[in-house]
Write a structure and sequence with these properties.
The protein has 522 residues and is α+β, with helices and mostly antiparallel strands. It is built from 19 helices and 14 strands. The chain has helices at 2-34, 41-62, 67-77, 84-95, 102-120, 122-125, 149-173, 178-202, 213-229, 239-247, 266-271, 284-287, 292-300, 342-356, 366-382, 398-405, 407-424, 448-463, 496-512; strands at residues 129-134, 143-147, 251-256, 261-264, 304-310, 313-325, 331-340, 386-395, 430-435, 438-444, 467-469, 472-474, 478-487, 518-520. The chain has a five-stranded antiparallel β-sheet with strand order 4-3-7-6-5, with helices on both faces. The protein has a five-stranded mixed β-sheet with strand order 9-10-8-13-14. It has a two-stranded antiparallel sheet with strand order 1-2. β13, α19 (496-512) and β14 (518-520) form a beta-alpha-beta unit. The longest helix has 33 residues, at 2-34. The protein is elongated. The protein starts with a helix and ends with a strand.
Length: 522
């Protein structure tokens, strides 16, 4: 009866070891065909293969009838075993996208090679095992080992690599989403399992003094299989891709086929206030109730530009859309990308400003002045109509100013005239330098009386000011001509050029009246 019980206990250990070795081998083959090119994949394949060889070698050690056979299989075990921690560490580093310096690889593999040499030459120096024997007080033969000095070098190296691997995974876990955290936690559990077993074994707490390492390696690969099959480790998107996704400057949201928010990256948190983890699973349109313009653009689903103000700073985005398809090519959602084009937009605005602005006076140049004035008149014509007035003015006896005080003084006078007009104008008024010392103001919606009063205010302020040029006081005056017309709906006759000609006639009338005055056309 006692013999049957011993055989059953031994059979239990044998079946566990066979199961663990077979599981390791199956995972190795599965990884070879499914994700050998994925980050960490090639090291995972090597690790599972080495673990399988170690398990089956230990199986033969456990079932060996004598010490000589036991010693043979013990040496076979130490061919794959020293390399398992090195490849495990490399797998974790590659999985999280961490590249190691070349010298680290030399260190990682130098100690395993030395371990194999020390273990296989132990009978010459006894630095690895001081003594080897088979137990006589257990239900079945169990190898008894008295460890030497170098065994602890291997011990600390093995568990040092595993500890570093665990720390690397835990350090990266804080940077990724829940899905990848479950991958990492499952992998960590798999790495910790053999460590627990070894402390039982080295501390003399394992049943009958059996090395529990192979048993717990089986447990380790159970966790790995869960990570592979349940959490799709290496298969969908490795942790490195998730880190890239989170660190992108462009905002990204992922929607399913029903427009429900599936995922977003950190850049979107700055763009949409209130976006948080609780928003996952909510319709995207309901999250945009406070952003009606953006809501409309996303509903259209067409590439477009979007301007918003964040922390009192204008930011510009180009919104792009990309479909998400399953393996069969069926659309299952879409990605909305918010590319930050602020620098580009600001550069375009600056170039547009330079193209439309007179360099000396900072008013509109002639081309921009004519275009915007025509647009304003066409706007009145296409709507309900209304009055429009044009003021044309210049500096009296400008040539004399240049001849008396120099051309630099002439530029100062032009800038002063432009700055004075700009201070008095309303936002809807269109002002520009027409040429030389001539300026034009187009006033859509203004009557002739309003235009006259504006011109008089500018004239009065110019006449009452003094300019200091090279220590000398210079006074200037200006003359103004005003023209006005009532634009009717559908009017195609009125043009800014016509109004400028009329204002020019009025300006010459002001010159004939003695200058420094305002005259109205007609």
């Amino acid at each position: 009866m006692e013999q049957v019980k011993m055989e059953q206990e031994l059979l239990t250990y044998i079946l566990i070891i066979i199961g663990g070795g077979a599981l390791s081998l199956c995972l190795c083959v599965y990884a070879l065909f499914r994700f050998r090119q994925a980050p960490g994949g090639k090291y995972y394949i090597i690790t599972t293969f080495l673990a399988s060889v170690f398990n089956f070698a230990y199986l033969f050690e456990l079932t060996s009838p004598g010490l000589q056979e036991t010693w043979f299989w013990l040496r076979v075990e130490y061919i794959p075993l020293p390399f398992i921690p090195a490849f495990t560490l490399l797998m974790c580093c590659d999985y999280v996208g961490q590249r190691l310096p070349r010298w680290v690889y030399y260190v990682l593999f130098l100690i395993p090679l030395a371990t194999i040499v020390m273990q296989h030459t132990n009978e010459w120096h006894h630095l690895y095992y001081r003594a080897i024997s088979l137990s006589t007080d257990t239900p079945f033969p169990v190898t008894r080992l008295v460890h030497g000095l170098y065994f602890y070098v291997h011990f600390f190296y093995l568990y040092g690599c595993l500890a570093i691997s665990v720390l690397i995974l835990l350090w990266q876990m804080r940077r990724v989403r829940w899905r990848f955290r479950m991958q990492i936690l499952t992998m960590v559990a798999g790495l910790v399992a053999p460590v627990v077993a070894s402390f039982f074994y080295v501390g003399g707490k394992s049943p009958y003094g059996i090395d529990l390492g192979p048993f717990f390696i089986s447990v380790s690969f159970v966790f790995h299989s869960i990570a592979l099959l349940r959490y799709q480790m290496f298969d969908v998107a490795p942790i490195a891709r998730d880190i890239v996704f989170e660190s992108m400057e462009d905002g990204v949201v992922v929607l399913n086929e029903n427009g429900v928010l599936v995922d977003y990256n950190n850049a979107m948190v700055d763009l949409l206030e209130g976006l948080n983890a609780q928003a996952i699973g909510m319709p995207m349109m309901s999250l945009l109730d406070s952003y009606p313009v953006l809501r409309e653009k996303i509903l259209l689903g067409q590439e477009c530009d979007y301007e918003c103000e964040r922390r009192a700073v204008k930011t510009y985005f180009r919104i792009r859309f990309a479909p998400v398809r399953d393996k069969k090519g069926t659309p299952v959602g879409r990605i909305v990308i918010f590319a930050n084009i602020t620098e580009q937009a600001q550069l375009e605005e600056q170039l547009k400003y330079l193209a439309n602005t007179d360099g000396l006076t900072s008013l509109l140049n002639k081309t921009a002045l004519m275009q915007r004035s025509e647009q304003a008149i066409q706007g009145l014509s296409s709507e309900e109509g209304g009055p429009v007035a044009v003021i044309m003015f210049d500096i009296d006896q400008f040539k004399q100013v240049n001849d008396t005080f120099g051309h630099e003084a002439g530029d100062i006078a032009l800038m002063h005239l432009a700055a004075t007009a700009r201070e008095i104008l309303d936002d809807q008024d269109i002002a520009g330098r027409y040429g030389g010392d001539e300026f034009v103001i187009c006033m859509p919606g203004a009557s002739v009386t309003e235009a006259y009063e504006l011109a008089e205010r500018i004239r009065s302020r110019i006449a009452g000011s003094e300019l200091l040029v090279d220590g000398e006081t210079m006074r200037i005056s200006s003359s103004f001509g005003v023209a006005s017309v009532q634009v009717t709906p559908g009017d195609r006759e009125t043009s800014v050029q016509m109004l400028i000609r009329q204002a020019d006639h009025a300006l010459y009338a002001a010159k004939r009246m003695g200058r420094n005055c305002v005259q109205v056309y007609g």
